[in-house]
């Protein structure tokens, strides 16, 4: 009986080792599945964050482009106003300048 008892003990040890291996394999597979799921979730979050940042960037680009267009229009208007102001000033004093030049040209100094 001693040998059958030993044989039974060896069989129990082998069964326990197989059970332990099965538990380890299940745990490893569960860990791999969880890592895969975590990676997929992280990829989704990264894609959502990237899309959000891209949309914000595009909004800022569009906003700054719109602002530069408005700035160009404003500068054109200001420039035109200044040109008209200078032309009106020149028209107001041009007759005086002509008279002064004629006076100096026609006056003879001895």
In short:
This protein has 110 residues and is mostly helical. It has one helix spanning 2-106.
Give an overview of the whole structure.
The protein has 110 residues and is mostly helical. Helix content is 95%, strand content 0%. It has 1 helix and no strands. The protein has one helix at residues 2-106. The longest helix has 105 residues, at 2-106. The chain is rod-shaped and about 155 Å long.
Strand content: under 5%
Q: What share of the residues lie within helices?
A: over 70%
Nearest-integer average pLDDT: 89
Distance between the ends: 156 Å
H and E string: H
Which structural category fits the helices and strands?
A: mainly alpha
The tally of helices reads 1
Radius of gyration from the CA trace?
A: 46 Å
Quaternary organisation of the protein chains: single chain
State the low-pLDDT regions, or none: none
- Anisotropy-based shape: rod-shaped
Query: What does the largest sheet look like?
Result: none
The total beta strand count reads 0
